[in-house]
Amino acid sequence: MTARRAVQLYSKTLSGLCSTPSTLLRALLQYSPSILKFFVGLLFLFNIRSWPLVWHYNVLIRPVYELRFRWWAVWWRNVFASKKRMLQVMDKFLKDLCPVGEDPLSYTVTVKQWAGPDDCDFNWHLSNSSYPKQLDAARFRAALKICPTFFRAGGWMPLGATHFKFISEIPILAHYEMRMSMAAWDNKWLYTVIRFVTTKKSKSKKPQVTASAASREKPIPSGDSAPFPQLHTPATPSGTSTPALTDGAAPSNPAERIAQLLPEEPDGATLHCISVCELCFKIGRITVPPAVALALEGFSAPPPPESGITKYSHEHPPPNFIKSQQLQAPDVPHGHLRALQKFLKGGWRDVPEGERWWEDALSGEIETRRARNLEAVKGVRLSMEGAMTTYV
């Protein structure tokens, strides 16, 4: 075909396409389906984390099966060992999951996440609705790390309420952390504080869920001092900042009082949001006091000076963890949990007042801090209940 003939054919085709709108539309549909499919597929992939059942996978399936895979890996490595050796190995695996000797009010679990396109709003910031969505998965991961024995016995931790205090935006594609710590508890509710923070990029890769050693190294002050140092929020990326609370400032609402409860981040991270969650411990429909569940896992106050050790551990477990192990049967495959389940379902009520080992485990300085922190966090619940009574 000559160049002149090609030009004539191109001109004729172009004039035909532009002759009527319907002809042009048919041409677009005929010649551009591949491009449309590409963009539709790309949009579909961008929202992969919001596909149907992905939430169920992230919240319920993935955390549980990560633990199961670890269990199976240990089992397969010892598949040819004797029965006695197998029981010892699996019992050690289950004990190592427990936070033995840790201070519950200084224990922090960190879950890392990033602000994907499906989680952001039209301002290219993490949407307000995405905070509780991502917190669902983080909360269950933290619960499995804090109370592995309780869940193994058939327990669960329903959510009673969630409160948010937004401070500054998290931009799209930014990596952020949800740092969850226990603030206080009463006879029914466990109050947890979650800080949404961003940190500077680091070349080293860290596990997705870790207990923050830095937080444990900076314990909560005790005595008559303030529960935590005052919070100073850095400037936001846009140049604005949230005013810092000073010693003489009186918070105008309970959500702002939570800010006074929080310490400055030990690594200089930027705080974006504070959340307070109310959780309770259930086995079936029976409520278990939080102190019972926490002491069961090995959380405890420091050992007395005359013990000769500075901190309880798996090698030197606290008395409450020894009591917890006596409620189980490690010499039976997978552990025998009937006695433990009976205790959780109400057997703890039959223990005399002076022999309640879970109260002794969380006494002293821990009890003092718990009572002080409770006054701050329960104000959020009382304010919401007051609003419901006033306006309903």
Structure summary:
This protein is an alpha+beta fold and 392 residues long. It has helices at 3-17, 21-31, 33-46, 54-77, 83-96, 130-146, 148-152, 213-217, 254-261, 290-296, 319-326, 338-344, 357-361, 365-391, and strands at residues 108-114, 155-156, 159-166, 175-185, 189-198, 209-211, 270-283, 286-288.
What is the topology?
Blueprint: H1 3-17, H2 21-31, H3 33-46, H4 54-77, H5 83-96, E1 108-114, H6 130-146, H7 148-152, E2 155-156, E3 159-166, E4 175-185, E5 189-198, E6 209-211, H8 213-217, H9 254-261, E7 270-283, E8 286-288, H10 290-296, H11 319-326, H12 338-344, H13 357-361, H14 365-391
Helix pairs in contact: 4-6, 9-14
Organism: Phanerochaete carnosa (strain HHB-10118-sp) (White-rot fungus)
Family: Belongs to the lcsJ thioesterase family.
Biased composition (Low complexity): 233-246
Structural key phrases:
single chain; 392 residues; alpha+beta; Thiol Ester Dehydrase, Chain A; eight-stranded antiparallel sheet; 14 helices; globular; THEM6_lcsJ_thioesterase; Thioesterase domain-containing protein; HotDog_dom_sf
General description of the model:
The chain is an alpha+beta fold and 392 residues long. The protein has two domains: 104-243 and 252-283, Thiol Ester Dehydrase, Chain A; 288-391, no CATH class. It has 14 helices and eight strands. It has helices spanning 3-17, 21-31, 33-46, 54-77, 83-96, 130-146, 148-152, 213-217, 254-261, 290-296, 319-326, 338-344, 357-361, 365-391, and strands spanning 108-114, 155-156, 159-166, 175-185, 189-198, 209-211, 270-283, 286-288. Strands 1, 2, 3, 4, 5, 6, 7 and 8 form an eight-stranded antiparallel beta sheet that branches. β4 (175-185) and β5 (189-198) form a beta hairpin. The N and C termini lie far apart (82 Å). It comes from Phanerochaete carnosa (strain HHB-10118-sp) (White-rot fungus). Residues 205-252 are annotated as: Disordered. InterPro entries: HotDog_dom_sf (IPR029069), THEM6_lcsJ_thioesterase (IPR051490). Belongs to the lcsJ thioesterase family.
